[in-house]
Amino acid sequence: MGIELVEGRDLVVNQNRVYMRTTRGLERVDVIYRRIDDTFLDPEVLRPDSVLGVPGLMRAYRAGHVALANAPGTGIADDKAVYAYVPQIIKYYLNEDIILPNVPTMICADPKQREHVLANLESLVVKPTNESGGYGLMIGPKATQAEREACADRIRSNPREFIAQPMISLSRVPSLIEDHFEGRHVDLRPYILYGEDIFVLPGGLTRVALQRGSLVVNSSQGGGSKDTWVLQSDGAPQTQSQRQHEMSTP
Q1: Rounded distance, CA 195 to CA 218, Å?
Q2: Is 89 helix (H, G, I), strand (E, B) or coil?
Q3: Greatest CA span in the chain, whole angstroms?
Q4: How do the pLDDT tens digits run along the chain, 250 residues long?
Q5: CATH class of 8-75
Q6: How far is CA 9 from the centre of its chain?
Q7: Parallel, antiparallel, or unpaired: how do β-strands 162-166 and 171-177 relate?
Q8: 199 vs 137: CA distance, rounded Å
Q9: Could you tell me where in the chain the CATH 3.40.50.11290 domains are found?
Q10: Would you tell me which CATH number, out of the four given (1.20.120.340, 2.60.120.460, 3.30.1490.270, 3.60.120.10), belongs to the domain 79-168?
């Protein structure tokens, strides 16, 4: 995808501009998509003991010399309860109906929806609203009765902290396990850029659940990644009509 993968120590700030260290010298960095928490971004203004971030990064950001694709503070919207309202959000802001439906999501804070969830735990996936990395999941069809009962107790004690969704069967691909191939579940995370136009980058992140039968692809839960092959792409942004045609073609 033409995106450099770096650690904080690979970047340096000079005169409020961010540069990447390379074997050919420093190269200017204009946009950063970060994968570390807010508090670790810059030891100059946030956690002084952070060795993950880049000293001076916030100075460069405030000066307008580097863009952070997911700016500090945007995590406030990283709440899984938002899933349930995506169709309404699109309708409200764009006055359009969704083209690709999202996974039906039940809010346990709602009494009627909570009652339905508690009565159908054996067929649902329960997720904590404020967790990430696959932590705290209860996959009903694969859980024991004791695990489902414990999950029900957690929902009753703090319903705002949970949502539930039907279990979705992920695609499977052959994966090399030790000395032979076995099927493993995968998902694809595409990247969509918004500028003068909105277009999907050719490529993405394919995550694989390396444990047999698992549906959890998060690296923190034993998942891995696979190469994502793009069979044909000229790299040019697609028009809206092209995107709609391709999305509606089997």
Answers
A1: 29
A2: helix
A3: 62
A4: 678 999 999 999 999 999 999 999 999 999 999 888 899 999 999 999 999 999 999 999 999 999 998 888 887 767 889 989 999 999 999 999 999 888 999 999 999 999 999 999 999 999 999 877 778 889 999 999 999 999 999 999 999 999 999 998 889 999 988 899 999 999 998 888 878 888 888 888 899 998 888 888 888 778 888 888 888 756 554 444 444 333 333 3
A5: alpha beta
A6: 24
A7: unpaired
A8: 32
A9: 8-75
A10: 3.30.1490.270
Structure-token match 């700030």, residue found: 13
Helix (H) or strand (E) holding 87: helix 86-94
Token representation of residue 190: 């595409």
* Full-model pTM: 0.69
**Position 82: which residue type?**
V
Q: Write the single-letter amino acid at 2.
A: G
